[in-house]
Amino acid sequence: MPTPPLAGGTTGPAALRPLLDTVLTALQDGALRRDGPLPAGGPDTVTPHLRTALHPVIPDHGTGAHHALTTLISALTQGAADPADPLCAAHLHTPPLAVAAAADLAASALNPSMDSWDQAPAASALEADLTTALATEIYPHRTAPDALVTTGGTEANQLALLLARERHGPVQTIRGANAHHSITRAAWLLGLPEPITIPAPTGVMDLTALADTLARLQGPLLVTATAGTTDTGQIDPLSDIADLCATHGAELHIDAAYGGPLLFSPTHRNKVHGLDRAHSVTLDLHKLGWQPASAGILAVPDHHHLDALHHHAPYLNADDDTEAGLPDLLGRSLRTTRRPDAVKIAVTLQALGRTGLADLIDRTCTAAHHLADLITKTPTLDLYEHPTITTVLFRPTDTDDHTVATIRRTLLTRGHAVLGRTHTNGRLWLKATLLNPHTTPHDLQKLLDLVTHLATALPKGSTPR
């Protein structure tokens, strides 16, 4: 067998073109065979099918690039939960834009590693400019804001707590009951005290309870607010929380992994007013930014806030190289080798501009409100509340939680729809997280029809088939 070609260099594109054609054909064929938002049959069907295509995982003799791509990509696509299908709406799992996926291919082919300048000369400059621009969106009135590219909201939240610990020692974290689980996990990982949880009886942090907690505790304190919860999509009262933090000398971190991109929409940016008052902000563009995972951001109001992350490894950032002008990249992440995820983000922002990104955000928010309106007009369905961003909770009227869970699993097993679930206000709800800007009113009505049909067709106590 000849030596396989490489993706980079002057010959790489010629080697990639026929392989990409094979991949694209396999993606299309697999999607046609799946014919829906996810494969029918559940794990008992999907897993054996994939294993048949994959066996043997490591053959003695290779099957060749085109055969391997055709077989595995087709099987993977046929067995995928496809967020590009309007009825795949369970999670903050976005359908990536084609332009972003294409840019990600270039990043993979060039394969710059973002831990030293000599591995990523242009990519490091692109990342520096992109992170400055995104940080300036969050902190428009600061002179030197900065941001780091992360693997997502979880890593960004962990870095925020780490930086607070490095500033103040064993900081006491205060979180809402609505906060993402990564806050508690980060405190555990960093050896910090277990976070104090503030009740969120209406879905957002209770201000009176927060004020009482801040008044009785001694510092150092870090309040973590949420702009876009995973359960309901609600946004904490950010400015009021910032006022309380200022009064009591606490720092503020805002997890805006979901809601942060609303900044780009003139229609919706008022919902995240107060982001610029935080000591750090998490943003996640593989949610309401339509990027392939991963595309997380941690922003801070001053680049010196990141100094604690500086790390010295002479083979990557020797002192004399740094003094000679080579950028030191090790302080840009806790990871060493890391992908140039900034590339796809930068290409997307260039391609769409502010108005294009705002249009996607506005379309998706409008679809969520339309879904909520359809639910309120359907007498057999209950709406939790109108959406803050794009998350809509609903359930069939006069059903118990077991039936709600069974409806969801039945839709999954039959391959008809992907809905999430969340328990709030004492009941289990179906959750539609709309992130597909191509979703139509017809798609939304079809989703509700599937739910209402099952609500009447499934016998009580049944299990999905």
UniProtKB/TrEMBL annotation:
It comes from the Bacteria. Keywords: Aminotransferase, Decarboxylase, Lyase, Pyridoxal phosphate, Transferase. InterPro entries: PyrdxlP-dep_de-COase, PyrdxlP-dep_Trfase, PyrdxlP-dep_Trfase_major, PyrdxlP-dep_Trfase_small. GO terms for molecular function: transaminase activity. Gene3D superfamilies: Aspartate Aminotransferase, domain 1 (3.90.1150.10), Type I PLP-dependent aspartate aminotransferase-like (Major domain) (3.40.640.10). SUPFAM superfamilies: PLP-dependent transferases. Its cofactor is pyridoxal 5'-phosphate. Belongs to the group II decarboxylase family. This is Aminotransferase class V-fold PLP-dependent enzyme.
